[in-house]
Design goal:
- The structure is a single chain.
- By secondary structure, the protein is an alpha+beta fold.
- The chain folds into two domains: 7-46 and 124-195, Outer membrane lipoprotein wza domain like (Outer membrane lipoprotein wza fold like, Roll), CATH 3.10.560; 54-122, wza like domain (wza like fold, 2-Layer Sandwich).
- The chain has four helices and ten strands; from the N terminus they run ααββββαβββαβββ.
- Strands 7-6-10-8-9 form a five-stranded mixed beta sheet, covered by helices on one side.
- A hairpin with a 7-residue loop joins strand 8 and strand 9 (176-179).
- The relative contact order is 0.17.
- InterPro entries: Poly_export (IPR049712), Poly_export_N (IPR003715), Soluble_ligand-bd (IPR019554).
Amino acid sequence: MNCKHDGPRGKRRHLALAVAGAAALMLGGCAAAGAPPISTADVAAGLETYRLGAGDKVRVTVFNEPSLTGEYNITPAGSLAFPLIGVVAAGGRTIEAVQQELTAKLAEGYVNDPRVSIEVLNYRPFYILGEVNRPGEYSYASGMTVEQAIARAGGFTYRANEKTVFLRRQTGQGESAVPLRSAQVAVLPGDTIRVGERYF
């Protein structure tokens, strides 16, 4: 049997690989640790303060005006095309704000004393990425928590960090760390949940 010894050069190569692997683990841990904890406002966030976005489908009712009442989609640009008055910015705005703008514009010579009501028929989806068994896009369901969303995506993989996941609200500035089993955080339409790997 022939045995090959690495020699000094082989040992240096193995040492370099070991150092690189350790550095990768440390960087991954630092990236995870760098995400701020989820804010109190985001924990408490619900549909009461919901802001419309691309992919939402709404029903606009203009009382006593059946030709204006109908279903409308929020476009990828975040706009709503409405008869008579044209395009209205809807993305990133509350339902109440869009109602007020439609009411004001219809009152500019189109409808006498307009009364406008908006309800969301279909909310845009949410997304779950990373270490789950079925990552991808999922339809929104009212009242769903982050843990329930993970279960819907087939649960954790064997590599997953099951203690903390990361949540990005569509209206937020970046990811927030969500400690599981200690906070019941609701999923909102347009959210992205990322499940990272555990490193040790």
